[in-house]
Design goal:
Layout: H1 5-12, H2 16-24, E1 32-33, E2 39-40, H3 43-58, H4 62-68, H5 76-106, H6 117-120, H7 125-137, H8 140-151, H9 157-163, H10 171-191, H11 193-196, H12 206-220, H13 223-237
Antiparallel strand pairs: 1-2
Helix pairs in contact: 1-2, 1-3, 7-12, 10-13
Length: 253
Amino acid sequence: MTWSTRQLAELAGTSVRAVRHYHDIGLLAEPERASNGYKRYGVAHLLRVLRIKRLADLGVPLSQIAEMGDGEGFPRDALQTLDAELATTIERLQRIRVELALILRQGTHTDLPPDIGPAAQVLTDADRAFTVILTRVLGPSGMGALRDLLNDQRDEPATAEFDNLPADADESTRAELAERLAPYVDELTSQYPEITAPATDSPVGAKRAAETVGKALRDLYNPAQIDVLVKVNRLLYGPDGQPPGKDRRPGPG
């Protein structure tokens, strides 16, 4: 008793295309052909296809099934490896479900960690995007400081003016805003130094962290806002980037 390719596929609960694929990758030996040229499959072929399908259904890759050869022994090593991989996958999926539940409950953005998302709800689009970039370059200490900073939302009028500053703001407007913004920035950088120096334990290294932060600032904020940030930096640290003396610090007004 022999079967055609279609009959073999039907008996094994698979498709003709799958049987042909098993031939192509060397998983299934080619059968003899009848005088009319059609393949003639026997019981050994059916058993082989059933074994391949069963292992594949369990999640064993076809490449790994091929490495087992045609032997019918119990593939303990392959199944143990698969079990370990599944355990890791299940653990990862469980973590994802916990995060998804938190995101759904809080209604926060998916591009931010769940413990940061709620506090970032009040940020502008640019600030939120910049926060996302920071999460990629900050190390553990920086991330802790970022969480604290986001939860330490303060009512500072100068920051609202900065958020709404038009790109064509004139020089006097930018300079005056920088003067009022500098004390607030000085206070934050003193309280959260890990954010202003992300390279200390950055996972991407000092150079890439600085380059990434700089590019994000240039791309996310308009020219007037960038100019205000430059002016604030000069007011706080001087043109040479070194901390200025007390007399060069801007006053609280």
